[in-house]
Amino acid sequence: MSALPTWETFHESVRGVNKARNQDRCLVRGAGTAEDPLILTVADGHGSAAYPRSHVGAQYATDLFAHRAFEFATSVARRDRAGWRGRLRDYARIGLPERLVRDWQGKVLGHWERDPTPDGDPASPGAILRLYGSTLIGAVLTPDLFVAWQLGDGELTVVDDDGRVRLPLAPARAELGDETASLCTRNAWQLVRVHWEPLPDPARAPRLLALSTDGLSKSFVSDDGFTEFAAGLHRRLAERGLPGTAEDIPRWLEEASRHSGDDTTLALARRPVAGTDGDGAGGGGDDTAGRTADGTAGKVAGATAGEAAGKAVGEASSGEAVGGAAGEGGAEGVAAGVAEGFGGAAGEAAEKVAEEPGNSPRDPRIHDEETGRP
Question: pTM for the whole thing?
Answer without folding.
Answer: 0.76
